TrEMBL record:
Residues 247-412 form the W2 domain. Keywords: Activator, Transcription, Transcription regulation, Translation regulation. This is Basic leucine zipper and W2 domains 1a. Belongs to the BZW family. Pfam families: HEAT_5MP1_2, W2. Residues 1-28 are annotated as: Disordered. Residues 1-15 have a biased composition (Polar residues). GO terms for cellular component: cytoplasm; membrane. InterPro entries: ARM-type_fold (IPR016024), eIF5-mimic_regulator (IPR051245), HEAT_5MP1_2 (IPR057397), W2_5MP1/2 (IPR043510), W2_domain (IPR003307). The keyword Lyase does not apply. The keyword Transcription regulation applies. GO terms for biological process: regulation of translational initiation.
Amino acid sequence: MNNQKQQKPTLTGQRFKTRKRDEKERFDPTQFQESIVQGLNQTGTDLEAVAKFLDASGAKLDYRRYAETLFDILVAGGMLAPGGTLSDDMTRTEYCLFTAQEDLETMQAYAQVFNKLIRRYKYLEKGFEEEIKKLLLFLKGFTESERNKLAMLTGILLANGSISASILSSLFNENLVKEGVSAAFAVKLFKSWINEKDINSVAASLRKVGMDNRLMELFPANKRSCEHFSKYFTDAGLKELSDFARNQQSIGARKELQKELQEQMSRGDPLKEVRLQEEMKKANLSEQAMIGIIWTSVMSSVEWNKKEELVTEQAIKHLKQYSPLLKAFTSQGLSELSLLLKIQEYCYDNIHFMKAFQKIVVLLYKADVLSEEAILKWYTEAHLAKGKSVFLEQMKKFVEWLKNAEEESESEEEEAD
């Protein structure tokens, strides 16, 4: 029929589908780079004007495709070749982070430029983090002044949450660590970060991405000790970071020791007090911390009966076995009190043990683990709020007995005098 549409001719053979974005010139960053460089040359050192220019240019230029080129220019003035040197055949600008003044105020202003850019074009967020990771790997290719500026900027960006602390993993690169570049860079970075926030905020950010236990990796294996770390950063004016790392190592050592003890107890292996004393000294733990570890290990090494009437008997039998060990680590009044608080906490947190508290305390009193002074102090002023009314009521008669025994002893002494 004449009114039917004529069928269009088709080509046979293989067809190559070409999208606009796959055309060769789209992969060429030269034009993009020239546009950015020209804009930066016009705005010069006026960073507010730079921010406005970048904001407006995002509507015309392909930031998504050329994010790396954009950040390279803003930081180094041109595209960076592997290793951190500037590509020779590319247009450059003298107005960038690396040519700026080396002071905190200027770096804060540059951080604002990056923050505004990323807030305006959210899709740049991931690319920016990748750029920082890359720049850290290129540190050996930069001058000392360039490293310092980058360290200050990175610290500020970490403080305001523009980048994640996971970028620090680049500093654990073997070559950077071996030559001391990582540690020196970290000093500037952490000073800048702590200047913006405080050590608690820094610690929270590090913990969030599991970096809190990896700071020792800033040093070569033969210098990876708490003592070396502490001296290095304390001498550099970062005592709060040294204290944080020491505390983290102590927490790590406690966890390891507790796990080891628990496994040994579960297997029924004999525990030597001398060896535990050595472990305590090695981990730089106080006796109060050690008694807490031992108590937790003792109570975690057994499968407890779910019936309240049977668990008390089981606990007494189990604790009798370990009372000599508990006694060895309660030579101080504070250690006894720490143990009492641990017992109170445990009985409160494990509901089947609520009625066992008094029997456990009496057992440890008879085994010379707990003294009457420690028990009376706990009863009158040092107890926790957890289950307070229940446990004080349980202990009432025994405390009265202790007080009467103490009074009788004092009167006997007076008569003897």
